[in-house]
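Trying the structure run again after the queue cleared.
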Amino acid sequence: MRFGALRHLVSILVLPFTVVVIVPAWLLSVRGAPDSRWVGGSLEPFRYALGLLLFAAGFGMFAWCVVLFARVGRGTLAPWDPTRALVAVGPYSYVRNPMISGVAAMLAGEAVFFGSSRLAGWLLLFVLINHVYFVAVEEPGLRRRFGAGYDEYKRRVPRWMPRRVR
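Done. Tokens:
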């Protein structure tokens, strides 16, 4: 395995794998703490399908962003090995944080699929933590690394929700 591929693998295992696999598995396995499962019945197959669809869409977005970080940014998703160039193409031309949106969609898919309020709570906590991190740490760091280019990008592209095209 090339060093570059190993860098990406480590960053994925440490960050999104922990968020999407390890923490949800732990939350679903906790005994003694109630987890109100959503009502099943005749709509349960639709819940499974919606959960899988959300997860697949989120995974696709996440994978696309990892590829862009490697090819365009020449770095990884990890703060300890960041991109060397500003990534402002593909989904990054619509929102500044599509990778986090992809991971959030995967968590939403898991919450829906398993009908788990614990996973829904983890999704909300994940989004809150990332919002605070991006505002307090990531954006000032990007400003220092990329200067006026990042300022222009930030002016043009919203943080989380795409702007309506007129």
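The mean pLDDT is 88. Worth checking whether this holds up in the mutant runs.
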